[in-house]
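Can't attach files on this board, so I'm pasting raw text. These are the components:
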Amino acid sequence: MSATAAFASAADWRGDFPALAQSVHGRPLVFLDSAASAQQPAAVIDAVAQYQRENHANVHRGVYTLSHRATEAYEGARDKIVDFINAESRNEIVLTSGTTESINLIAQSFCRPRLHAGDKIVITHLEHHANIVPWQLVCEQTGAELVVAPINDRGEVELDAMLELIDDKTFLIGMAHVANALGTVCPVRKVAEYAKARGIPVVVDGAQGVPHLDVDVQDLGCDFYAFSGHKMFGPTGTGVLYGREALLEDMPPWQGGGDMILEVSFDKTIYNELPYKFEAGTPNISGVVGLGAAIDYLQAICMERIADYEHQLHDYMVGELEKVDGIRLIGEARDKASVQSFLLDDIHSHDLGTILDHQGVAIRTGHHCAMPLMQHFGISGTSRASLALYNNRDDIDCLITALGKAREIFA
Amino acid sequence: MTREGSDMQDLYRELILDHSRSPRHFGKLENATHTADGINPLCGDKLKVYVRVGTGGDIESAYFEGSGCAISVASASLMTDTVTGLPVDTAEACCEEITARLTTGSRHDDIGIDLERLRALDGVRQFPSRVKCATLAWHALHAALNNNMTPASTE
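---
Top answer:
Structure tokens for the assembled complex are below.
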């Protein structure tokens, strides 16, 4: 597609997001914080509202019409997820509250019963806290060791060094698909291939992958892939854990309660089959319906098209930022998606965030839940502009103008 | 002047910018009698407050170190300036007064010292997400004076 055609289509997509059509502090909203949480298209908002108005009841329980409709809507969303990430079966799709719960589930259900003192869990230096702390917890519980693969100053995982860390004591590998603070696209496929030959499972934190890349879990070759609904234009409180069926089958339940059982007596409980074994209690039905609508929305556009468009916009953003006096880009990986972190002179990122907000520009500031990564760069935080399909060049131009204003205030 | 411009100038007043660029009493106080850490978990900002209280119960010296945004550094700098030489009780009253001003806007009448200069922080009240930046140093001072070994947190 030509650049012109790509930018023309973005104008159409923007109109699908009601929240973007507003002013903040008297300026049109420029939303550049989708990596924290993305806005929702009307299709998602309406699907949730319609479900609440017409179809709500508890799922998997009632024999009446509304419960049937709710179950169809909820399970229909699961089928959409299967297709969206190319899982082999719906048994591999566990619905959770988000990436964080998904990773904790793996740590506690898959790792904890199997880990021994001296075993290693290998992660990378650029992970979000959600892909660090759950592993630290299970290491404390079992005496296993958390090992961190290094990154270089561009913010790329040092692949060779990472592979060298993987040995016969390595129980599991965890890594981001796309780094939330830097936008680095990580070499998941290569790591998974290497690990597979050694029988080591690979967990991918895909929270920043699914909104921007065409994700195919079988092609990636990972064993688990975790992501959140709200970063891909769906509701908060929804998430997915994809796990290879053979692995999920062997794992004990994560939480006990209703819906995850076949039969309960005080002597013994027989657990439900996959994926319900991992879904205790009434789930976030309306949220999952919204997640299904978000997938419909993205698939109607096509993830490849979105990735192409965002790639061009990202290049434009980086090019414009580089021209700003006093800018220091943090994260210059050769393969990136949608995110640019930066520092401006010695202006603290929180001050910058406040000044930009008053010009209608919303960015994320601080450590981005990646404190070890900030320590690598010897900084306490950055300002981060992150893109989604609804952003355009005008947004970038507003960001650049606002940065100029900040320099005036702190001159 | 646009509203946006005036809001920003109200927040980043000259005195605030001055103290953030050249913080007073910045560094470690070697013979401190009281210290405490202040942490803002939202942004990861962290500072350490050092106080030396003399035998008479007056604060002989107050220092801080750490990193933070212009608001938190300026507030810490103004805090050390303000409480140096004050009796501990009066310094505690200052903590309460400033925290109340920043969070609720309320003022008590007279705590016996002139806090006029701290009105430079008044602009922060219009920025709810930044109030904690301004209160951090004061929370830490309060923790230090109470010898509370738990870091003071804005949460």
